[in-house]
What does this fold into?
Amino acid sequence: MTYSEILLEKISSSRELVGIIGLGYVGLPLAVSFSSAGSRVLGFDKSEEKTAKINAAKNYISDISEEEFQQAVGSGLLQATTDFSRIRECDAVLICVPTPLDVFKKPDMSFIEAACLDIARNMKPGTFISLESTTYPTTTEDFMLPLIERESGMKHGADFWLAFSPERVDPGNKDYHTRNTPKVLGALTPEGLQIGQAIYSKAIENIHPVSSPRVAEMVKILENTYRLVNISLVNELALLCGKMDINIWEVIEAAQTKPFGFQAFYPGPGIGGHCIPLDPFYLEYIAKKFNFDLTMINTAGHINLLMAHRMTLKITSALNRQQKSVNGSKIVFLGVAYKPGIDDERESPALKIMDEVVKKGADVSYHDPYIPQVKTPEGHLFRSVALESAVAEADCVVVTTHHPGFDPDYLLEKARLIVDLRNLIKRPSEKVYKL
Amino acid sequence: MTYSEILLEKISSSRELVGIIGLGYVGLPLAVSFSSAGSRVLGFDKSEEKTAKINAAKNYISDISEEEFQQAVGSGLLQATTDFSRIRECDAVLICVPTPLDVFKKPDMSFIEAACLDIARNMKPGTFISLESTTYPTTTEDFMLPLIERESGMKHGADFWLAFSPERVDPGNKDYHTRNTPKVLGALTPEGLQIGQAIYSKAIENIHPVSSPRVAEMVKILENTYRLVNISLVNELALLCGKMDINIWEVIEAAQTKPFGFQAFYPGPGIGGHCIPLDPFYLEYIAKKFNFDLTMINTAGHINLLMAHRMTLKITSALNRQQKSVNGSKIVFLGVAYKPGIDDERESPALKIMDEVVKKGADVSYHDPYIPQVKTPEGHLFRSVALESAVAEADCVVVTTHHPGFDPDYLLEKARLIVDLRNLIKRPSEKVYKL
It folds into this structure.
């Protein structure tokens, strides 16, 4: 029997062990989805804290069903470890590590590289490897493949198979989670694709195969570039609408009555999270290698880069109406998560605006029921304060995230001045300064 | 009784006469929709040919149901005239004139201006006026209102009412036509809005009122800017994908499996038609007045401006593979309509590419079953040629529009070389050069 026959037979008789590297908001739900389907899963992470929590049946990802998680750990199907030598036990290794940008907005491939080295140095022959992290097209073929072959001394297609299958996790989405979100999969060879489909089909209802890893890499970038470009467009239009005395939210609501050819995006203080503000710049990076300039992504990036500054100007203008300066004013920010209802403040525009007004001399605080403390990009530490006293004492309340539960009527009654960057407050009022 | 009470009473007892200025692809379907609902309609157009056709019951707009049209004219409810003095007979006047860009890509307001003058010089007191043409926000309030008041000597709110209600006609759309596409309506006063809703409700199922004409103006621009930006984005990505050996159509098809947060747009040789390539530049124009630079629209416009040139380079590269130059080659274009299945070549990218390759010395012809003859922007006249002989003789067949009926297998068999700018040909072949 060849390695592929052995592996396919193992999968069909449910004796496979799936390794998942990176146990964050992508890897852990994926692990639970496999366990729930009866697959054995070994999760890998550099963080002792995370692996210990999992092994102690303590869930730390809010989108995961507590019941499924308890079952996964309780049944012994899901275990976690920091010992990467145990990769040799695995039949498949799925990589769910971060792909951030460095401070110069260039791709930071160090997490993918480390995962590849851990795999190459430990895997047994006959291992299927799939990358889920968003990255630039050609990563799987031109970055991972030579690295793994060199470090492992094994040969792709004979000893291991490589694929790319982008995660599509949307934190807080109540309708779509790991299992029922279709998964795109591109492998280097037909055999690799067959194995990948066999494995992923356990955890995910629909697999959409494509002709190559680079196509699958491009799919994910297209999805997120679409979002970056459209949010940037509507943010720019919102700023113009502000000058033209047009309520952009009323415009979007009306445009949505068009029953074809329109999808609504909403303005805000900037684009946050771990995907939309980052992924398109992976493509922009690789495009340079092909002597190609991605002007739309560049322009969208430019708009987003300026948003914190522009929002600071909004706050300045609002205070100015009441003959106050930013310097010396008490400013409280409501919501620092990058979107409503979640506890994630990565790349949140609120933090950047906080840094800007701190620099201008404001007395800054924030309230967020989901996030007890934050560190801004400039390194300032804040703890969430009580809503009532903060609103009562503030010269200016800035709505940066419209968490469920934020009460517009309460704010209208208690606050002296509100800069509403999320259309939380629908009633017209002299107190409210809108985006 | 006030004028508004008289008008509302007339409408409720179906005795109103609706005037429609401009009997093109927007005005004529709207006229028929009113007639079908039992309203009397008087259509106005400067073209004797159009009004004579209508009065002779000869329909010239393909999206109109022939039966409804015959009924409208046959019953006497729909009449057309070139005599604009008959505006005085009308209770409502709806303006459906073109708003093109001039050769410097600046708004050409001459048609709206002419309509306003015709109305102002002829209308009776108690007339409702609505503009449907896409234009920049503030047109109704700042351009039309003072013009009509000055020329008519009448007072808005007492003697007439002004509103903006953008057309949303999508030529060739089988599901949505005038009656069942919701209509946004913004008036200057609550009374004007009430009258506008009463009138439009006869012809259109759902009216979505907004707080002002400028909001309604912005709605239409947002809808079309969304399309311009997204088509431009995917066109730019398609060019990069070409260099990276990635099939962009496969990417889009896979991205569409994402069940949330994505809408597919398809690449092509450029953006055509009378809306998408024009409307956003109306907004860009007015933005300057507010010292605002719309960078997304600007970038999208830049991409679209270069598409014809880039497509010419694709043709040049394809011919080069077969050791041929554009100069002296026979090139036949399939499809000059700006989208499939329609007989409209306005702003069609095909014509611009034809001009470019003519300039480079190619022997150019075209085939389009919907369009018997065309004049290119550079003034070259062409007549559609027979498909068979043209394909057989051509050094290069360029697919510029994927009309229904174009047969990929036939082309693959008969053509020497195909530059497929529309993904008509799915089978891989040495003969095919893709966008």
